[in-house]
Amino acid sequence: MSRVLYIKANSKPEGTSRTFQISDAFVEAYKKHHPDDEVVVLDLYKMGIHFLEEKDLEYHNPAPGVGKDHPILKYAYQFLEADKYIFAEPLWNLGIPAILKAYIDYICVSSITFQYTAEGPVGLCKGKKAINITTRGGDYSSDIAKEFELGDKYLRTIIAFLGVTDFTTIAADQLDVIGVDVEKKVAEDIEKAVKIAETF
C-alpha cells in the first residue's frame, strides 16, 4: 500500500477550478486502479498555511526530541513518509501560487527531507514519484515561451532537490486564449490524466 499526498493550491473551489477538474479526475481514476492506497488531501487554502516567521525558522534545524506532531515540522515528516505526490495548481504570474511556495518552505527541512553532506545537499525522499497537474492561460510549449514558465520548472527542481526525480507533468495550456475551445481542451487533458493515473 502506498501513501499519496494530494496537494491542492488554488483559491477557486472545485466546481469552478479547471485545475481541480483535471486533478480530481486523476485522483478518482487513481483510486479506482489503486484501491488499497491511502490518498491524503492537503487543500492549502483550507488548511490556512501561512508564511514562516522568524520564530519558525529555528525548527529548520530541529533539535533532537522535537516530535512529528510539531506544528512547523509535521508537514516535512508527512512529506517524507509519503510514497507519491500529486500537485495541482495554476500558473500565476509565470510561477506557482504563493501558498504553494509557503508549503514548500515547510517541507524543506534539513535532516528530515534533505541533509547537508561534505559533497553538498542530498535529498532524503528518493525512490518516490510525483506528478504536477497545472493549468495555464497561454501557450508555453514553444522554446521561447518555455523560458517564461517558472511554475512547473521550479516545482520539478525543488522536488528533485529533495530526491524525487520521477516527475511527470500534465499541463493544460491556452485556457485563456480567445478562440480556443476551452471545454474541449480541458476534456482532452482529463482523458490524458485518467490514462496516466492507471500506472502512476
From TrEMBL:
Keywords: Flavoprotein, FMN, NAD, Oxidoreductase. Belongs to the azoreductase type 1 family. It comes from Lacrimispora xylanolytica. It catalyses: 2 a quinone + NADH + H(+) = 2 a 1,4-benzosemiquinone + NAD(+); N,N-dimethyl-1,4-phenylenediamine + anthranilate + 2 NAD(+) = 2-(4-dimethylaminophenyl)diazenylbenzoate + 2 NADH + 2 H(+). Binds 1 FMN per subunit. PANTHER family: FMN-DEPENDENT NADH-AZOREDUCTASE 1, FMN-DEPENDENT NADH:QUINONE OXIDOREDUCTASE. The lineage of its organism: Bacteria, Bacillati, Bacillota, Clostridia, Lachnospirales. Its cofactor is FMN. Residues 3-195 form the Flavodoxin-like fold domain. It is an enzyme of class 1 (oxidoreductase). This is FMN dependent NADH:quinone oxidoreductase. Quinone reductase that provides resistance to thiol-specific stress caused by electrophilic quinones. Its EC number is 1.6.5.-, 1.7.1.17. Homodimer. FMN binds at T135, R136, G137, G138.
